[in-house]
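Chapter summary example.
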Amino acid sequence: MSVTRDDAPLYLAKYERRRAEPVAPLEGTDEEPAFVLRARERATLRALEELDRDSAPPGRTEEFARETVSPREQFPGEFRKRMAQHPLLMAGASDAGAHLQTFCGADYPTRVLKDLVPDPLTLEQAVYKLTGQPAAMLGLVDRGVIREGAHADLVLFDPARLGVVSTRFLDDFPTGARRLVHEASGYDAVIVNGTTIMRDGKPTGELPGLVLHRPA
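The structure predicted for these 216 residues follows.
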């Protein structure tokens, strides 16, 4: 649905009336289950609320409130468990940077570790889905594992402190353009090729990374 900022109040009023009414069960189909329809409705409402709220002039950095629908809400019960534990399902969220002012998928590792642990995934299973599994799928040898001889790419985190603590805009692009960012807690260090590049959420200035190429 394409909605301009001028249209947002009208659509918001419609959704507010619907939210005030008793929620009727959604009639889903095999191709589009009811919980998918409900999640889509929530996403539409969030987009409208943000569109109506986002009236700050360009170049201004602002904090804003945002409803987050966790995997537990979107995918209830046994279905969520089957999907999370499926050996062919990998974690990920990206639009390749196409919508930097409306989408930031960089929080997905934190949400996997926080929302899917300990049920339906163990901490070890969740870590594997974020590391060893995608490395194996992409054919990246000695990546995504901790063992002697492998590349020392490590993330040190405290599961008890993991979380997305803020979602906000930064206007640090050329010409003052903004981008959406998530800030996380609980990450103590990020190590690439044995060199610490992030400590307590702050960059160290070290840049030891290399472009990885899949073996022929």
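To summarize the output: The longest strand covers residues 163-170.
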